Amino acid sequence: MSDQAVHSAPPPAGTKTIVMCLDGTNDQIGVSEPSNVAKIFRMLSLVDRSRQIAYYDPGIGTLPAPHARGIIERHLSTGEELAFGIGMKHKLTEAYSWLMRHYAFGDQIYIFGFSRGAYTARALVGMLHCPGLLRTGSDNLIPYAIEKYATNDWPDTTAECEGLAEFADAFCWGTEQTPVDPALHDQVTDDGWRHPALDGTFFVPHHSVPVSFLGIWDTVEASGLAHFHEHHWRFTDSVPNAQQVRHAVSIHEWRNPYRAMLLQDRPDRPGRLEPEEVWFAGVHSDVGGTYEDDHRLALIALKWVVDGVVEKLVLRERDSYSLLFRALTETAYEGVVHPLPKSWLVTGPPYHRRIPEGAWIHQSVASRVAADHLGPSCELPSTHNVTDRAWYQPIPPDRLQVSPTAAK
Fold it and tell me: Residue ranges of the T6SS Phospholipase effector Tle1-like catalytic domain (predicted)?
């Protein structure tokens, strides 16, 4: 595939669906078993650009840095991305830039991500919250917007907050009279930019761009295998402007650099659903995809995320959905939990994940526990909830949107 992000042609102005797919570490379209993110991109119809457009970006470590020259330098570049977590800001810049060039007021945004691509997805949502989205044609200002968001040192003085507010007022979508998200219009405090009901964190309400759906698989820390370049970017833990969130989390992953980044509780707000964070059997890539020999566990996690949004997307073919999940039967919960090489221990001691009390687990996990297939190193909390009890049942075809050029 090309070493550039894959996307459809620019659309005309007007309300449309925008789908953004950010792949996981070392993942891309064109491999033998694509990730769940790549499978979603391949399902989409991109025929009518006034109705739906999409963006796909391969994962960290798949492509060399743009400045790399020659075979050796290009290999070193991808290795640095994997080892040290660099390249995250570049991925965010590319996604944000593409969205700036294609967004029109009123568009519906759907974002998907896996692994570090899930972190990038959450960062993109956070950046759309504050400072917001630059207006079309502001390419020269993108580095400034990225620098204002992608930092571990968030503004905490009145002067810094006012400076960021002035930047957003001057260059980003939305005004006090016409906010990007109407739900925030009547929730602005006297100072015009701080809202205590959203934990008091600084943002400019009328510039916050709503994201209709955020679907992510096993978000992991963005610091790389060597724990360098740690990122603590704002709003990645609460994604406050995402109206619906589904996060599939791996139970069996134990590699030290792959610690799960769970979502934090956020206050209720009209028009916004409570984030859904559900635990699934399997290691990191069992949940996010890419194992070729047995990918049933990945399909279970994929279907749960997809079922929350698929009726809003336009599919390439009438059977795009049914063919993708044809291998899902009532016994698919027996899928293989793939072993991880012991060589990963050089990156740190095992870090077995602890499922919090009161967490939600998928019905396929409950079925696995009943069959004594969960494994000795994994333990469910004494109090937990079970969801998606009809997980292998498909959504009826008449509820799906299909491209007008799809085969009859």
Answer: 16-307
